[in-house]
Design brief:
The chain is α+β, with helices and mostly antiparallel strands. About 50% of the residues lie in helices and about 15% in strands. The protein has a four-stranded mixed β-sheet, sandwiched between helices.
Length: about 120
């Protein structure tokens, strides 16, 4: 089963869902805002793709953090804490497809792993 993690009002999530529907890919949606995200799940993703990929330093949420909070993001433990407290800072989408984790909208990778 494929799970898409994100926030429903995010344009990138909408684009991802449109691509999945167009390509007739069944998936479930995990809404960070209502369901949150566990420290264990974030650690699992970090192990597979790296916390540097997951922590979106280009996001509005990142820019709204204090300089001290931003400067504390120097390792996986600190990054996971920030991502749990501010789940909008997680790059979107995160897609779990079996053992594969895809981060961000990438049609080539979607075609390769999700069809």
């Amino acid at each position: 089963m494929i799970t898409v993690y994100g926030i429903p009002n995010c344009d990138t999530i909408k684009k991802t869902q449109d691509w999945l529907k167009k390509n007739k890919v069944e998936y479930s949606f995990h809404n960070y805002k209502t369901e949150g995200i566990s420290k264990e799940k974030l650690a699992e993703w970090c192990k597979k793709v790296g916390w540097e990929i997951l922590l979106n330093k280009k996001s509005t949420t990142w820019k709204s953090l204090t300089p001290e909070q931003q400067e504390s993001a120097t390792n996986q433990t600190a990054a996971i804490k920030i991502m749990q407290q501010n789940n909008s800072i997680i790059k979107r989408p995160v897609i779990e497809a079996g053992n594969v984790i895809l981060v961000g909208f990438n049609e080539t990778e979607f075609s390769k792993h999700l069809k």
